[in-house]
Predict the structure.
Amino acid sequence: MHRRSFLRIAPAIALLSGCGKSPGKIRLALNWKPDPQFGGFYAAPYQAHGLDVEILPGGAGTPTIQMVGAGSAKFGVVSADEVAVARSQGNDVVALFAVFQNNPQGIMVHASRRLASLADLLKAGGTLALQRGLPYARLLEKQYGFDKVKIVPSPAGDISAFLADKNFAQQCFIMSEPLTARHQGADVQVFPVSDAGYNPYTTVLATSGESLRQNADRAKAMVAAVREGWRAYLDDPNPTNQRMNQLNPSMAPEVFAEVAEAQKPFIETDETRRNGLGSMSGERWKTLIVQLSELGDITRVPAPGDCYRAL
Amino acid sequence: MKRLRSVIPALIPLLVVTAAAELAVRNGLVKSYLVPAPSSVLRAMIDSRSELFGALLTTSASALVGFLLSTVAGIAIAVFLSSSRAIQRAFYPYAVFFQTVPIIAIAPLLVIWFGYGTRTVVASALIVSIFPVIANTLSGILSTEPALRDLFRLYRASTLVTLFKLRFPAALPQILTGLRVAAGLAVIGAIVGEFIGGQGLGSVVDVARTQQRVDKVFAAVLLASVLGLALFGLINLVSYVTLRRWHASEQ
Amino acid sequence: MDLEIAAGEFIAILGPSGCGKSTLLRMIARLAEPSGGRITIQPEEQFQTSFVFQDAHLLPWRTVLDNAALPLELMGVKQQARYATARTALQQVSLYEAEERYPAQLSGGMRMRASLARALVTKPRLLLLDEPFAALDEITRFRLDTQLRELWRTRGITVVFVTHSISEAAFLANRAVVLTKRGGGIKLDRRLDLPLERNDDLRMDPRLGHEMKVLLSAMEEE
């Protein structure tokens, strides 16, 4: 009865759980349950590129960045800010493919409150549910202050508290929770976090620097397969949606289809039409790194060029 | 002094493991983002001391209140269950429910009923820790020696008198055993409640985790362990004071 | 079985294991119900019965004094009065000095004496004892036998004493009843031909040996 470990100390456990699985299979660890944000990963023609890939669905708190760094998954889905912070701590993780070119995080509120912006919300009071540790949250706190709102933990996709209370606002994926809420009859307004100037790449495919050095060809093949998968998913999401819906029955099929449609502008932009799906720019990484170091999240500043690789 | 000396053997493995971990991380054998070096955990504790100790106080208060409610309610429920076989058969299975319900799953429900904040945390601590109190108290009450019960019957003592003057004192060692288990569970329950309800050490762990501050996570977890140990020690003290003159366990 | 016990008698009940002597005692104490027949005590009202078990069965969390005073406490007697009575009883069993001690600190013999004191505080008219000294060493047993006999003589109680020891039965009682092996029957019901005052010298007396022989043969036949 002397030491207690908690569920959240997952890194060490994830490392251990990596052993003993089928050899030869390349593991791709997702950071949430199968839903449209991973559509292209499920649609990707891995076999055609000579890859035997096993997709590991995740959930709240899946430590994908540690899993990739430790090698218990060869590839994982993370966000760009996670990569920068990890690198500054000596975790050699490299981004390869950015699904969401723009940050799909947002704060959703009840439209009846007649708020005009995030600044308004933070002055208006009520309850705001978000993950306080995330950089965007601390950016908001720094810019506007949290003294007028009651901050509570994000209910991770659960909108029951939002539906029950008009003065409840919560963190969301712009094309996900608000749609579900509208289906339940709520009149929802969404403020993108990128409005506050915070716009990292998200749903980013990453691997460890060591993997990359050991087998650059495999990484190349993976990126190519994923790119094709996202093309296929953007063109016709239905078959993949059905597959994912079976793995994750918590969202209704109609909502699956709606979300897949609503997320398109985040994935396919002018840049991607020029440079290919999933491409990233050094400028964006530089901006992100500056923001993070101003927030105090990174002490050893990584070089932007180290954070990602164009394959 | 004897008690202090008995603590030393327990400290040795702790010192060895801490030293080994420090060396392993410094030499790169273990990645620091997976397992933080003990020195970095210590630094995190010092750097964030006001935040951590404030959180510790919050969690302690919630865990303590949850534990006390658990004690009172648990003993009361056990007394109720002990009154007849029929009542036991009808209601005991539901008490077992407290043991098996996964608190992580029902914590969001608790938030809906009790709102964000201390009430949810206390409720969580109560739910997680009440069963051992019920089980051990009931067992203690029911296992009173038949001869002593005969003695009370001989002098025509009422059920209530027998309960308070015989069964209860006789059950005390077992009740205390149940409380020892419940103390640690109350801390766990409070922390889980805080993940969802947002305050105290649970919140520190949750936020630090999203910031990839493993050192801070470990620092908070360490403090939570200390809290659990402190509660456990408190029960042991109560046990010593109440049992020392007559029970084998404290001799 | 038909058994009549007169007031003031000291009866020893003997019999092989399993013959039901403990059960009989518990039925007299109204702790158990007879399956057939009746047990009547005359006069019924205000008839105090006390029971001494094979094990002292003291409440370990109470002092000797509180243990001795327990029956009075259960009957609602106020503390000052019951402590006074308890102290007297403890004095009679030579436990006066130990009143503040806890059962865990007492020897087996002392615990039994405390149990005896507890049985006496209600000033019982009927005292039932179920092999009370069986677990004690011989010297202590002899001492307690003598003490019990003295208490009986001075207080005029009726004593029913269950034992498996023939020598103890013969030493203590005026009347010995031997039960049949199967239970439910009386093998022997005998008035013992021994003096009223008994002390350790009696243990060497041939008269005691004679009575023991009678009892032994009754127990052996079957």
Chain C has two domains: 1-47+125-222, 59-122. Chains C and A do not touch (no CB pair under 8 Å).
